[in-house]
Amino acid sequence: MRYMNKIHPFLTSLGLTEQQQKKIGTAFQQQIRDSRVRNIEFKFTYEEWINWWGVDILKKGRKSGQLVMARYKDQGCYEPTNCYKSTCNANVSLKHKGETHYWSPKAREAMSKTHKGRLVPWVEKPFMTPQGLFKSKAEAHRQLGLDMSYYMRTRPTQYYYVKDVT
Questions:
Q1: Strand, coil or helix: 41
Q2: Per residue in 142-162, is it b (16+ CB within 10 Å) or e — as a string?
Q3: Residue 75: which of 100, 98, 106 has the closest Cα?
Q4: Cα(162)–Cα(166) distance, rounded to whole angstroms?
Q5: Is this model's pTM higher than 0.70 or not?
Q6: How many CA atoms lie within 13 A of 80 on its CB side?
């Protein structure tokens, strides 16, 4: 079923236009896709999802201060009894307090294939400077003590990421 084309009476009662309702339907589909990528079961129907959000659906988003659907202890599936509304900031801060989200083995494998064995490809991207090739931009910064972002902007032919090192 294509949720982004579905007009919902509750959303209409909030004064949302058809275009805004389509965006909400798209957000529902995106949340399903995101949970699949993370290998987390998503047990909400569109109706349940709309009802769970209620009027807070207007505050939903990934930006600072907006609301996200969080899971208790960041475990289990997405279902009404295992989720709560949290600000994006609060949900991210939980990850830095030891309640870390761990990628499932399936998701890790998919990311590794996508990024050629590197879980976080931007961390280990080779970086060239006039002083030589470094393992990463951070490594060049540590060894040279220079602000690499500044030099990349002002001297792009001397400070740059190496696209392919063989």
A1: coil
A2: eeeeeebeebbeeeeeebbee
A3: 100
A4: 11
A5: no
A6: 11
